[in-house]
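Support reply, case 0932

Customer input (verbatim):
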Amino acid sequence: MTKDVIALTARMPDPGAMLAGLLSGGPDKLVDTTGKGAVVRLCDGEGRPLLSVEAPLFVQVPGEAERLLGAAAPPVPYWWTEARATTGVEAAEQLAGTFAARLASLAGGSAWPPEAARSLAVVTTDGVSVAPEPAAAQPAVDVLTDKVAVVIQDRPVLAMTAWLSEAFRTAATAGLGLQVVTPPGITLSPAARDSLSTWPSRWVVRDERDGYYDGLTGAVLRWQDGMFAPVPSAEATAEDPRTPVAATYQEATVTGERQLAVTFRTVHPAGEDLVLGSALETIWRELTGEPPAGVGTAEPANLPWSPRQITDLARERAPEPTWVVVVGSPDRPGLATVRISRTKAGVEEDVTLMFGYGPDEEPPVDALPKVAELLATRHRLQSMLVQLRKARRDLAVPPRFEGPGVPVAFVLGAEEVHQMPDDRARRTPLSEPPVPLGPKTRRAMYYPLPGDPSDLSGWQDFERLMRHLKGE
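Our regenerated output:
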């Protein structure tokens, strides 16, 4: 049975509904709070958590329940309430199901997964106890060592939820990596990919043939020295520490689907009139004909798209950085992550954006020069790289090999062109000359690249260009 159960309700669970849910284990269960009151816990007789319940989230963005759970939700807006049971305790899992079933019944909605929420009856928990501290002190963490925190997850999409984000933060504060273990068939949200690709954090996939493997690299893993680590190959040497690749990871299929991936950075002077997110909205409108649909500090993205709201959030958190996820409408898969930082140069926005296209859809590559010019002339673009990838239209990352993207274009912002000596930005070793963008007094440069996903030589051209621009 899954460890996570979610109630999707048309009405906000009022105190009466929450109380009815919390009485799923009977009136004698201990209740406490954590996370500054944002998480309520049902505990055993020793005060250790059996069930952790997050504050209900008001979702105003269509398509998020379908994207992350494969579940139908009430019409937007609706309420999303998560309950997580302590791993390995059957009564705790039953508590989570009954809690969600009661909320769905009283607040009008449904529970995910449906099979976990079949009963409204009180769950017998007499004599049930859970693991001692310190593991039980962090309900999102299933195994804790001196090297990593391990989370066992069984959801259709491994996403950057609020509790997973908190698990990353807690692990990083303690100097630990976070390793998330999932069964086969699970996909990864692009919003969580970067966090799980930094050693010793990993996406660990259970596999019938090889035991465990890394969902992003395919490296066969085993539990050793308090963490999941690659199994050395019989041919490995100190100079070439290769590792076996799981057979399942190599079973890629050709679907004809593609992704257009864009990474860019803008740098703005700090000021009261600054509005963040405008560059992202510009490129989104140019490539899809519509603005983003929603934004959030975790997944699901719960707020309607609003650059002003992003700006206010970043101001509240300064000088600490701000991270948000941005999603598109269900009929045009699009997702971006934005990291906003205050630096000596000003306020920086680092954006990773991708759109998905089916076999019969053509990525709008022809629109890229116009997009680049708008960002360079209106939004203080520093640099931008665009790639085409053979990857899923729905943007989910499978635990299978997906080839690398191939560069379509690189853009250098006007300030960077101005600071480059010897007119270097205008003279390149590429066969196709760069395209000047913007007014003559403040040129940015657009560098076309081959961009054929079947020909990786595009990376050779890109590397030659980078060496040239660096003066090497």
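We compared this against your earlier run and they match. Two observations from our side: The radius of gyration is 24 Å. The chain is about 20% helix and 30% strand. Please reopen the case if you see a mismatch on your end.
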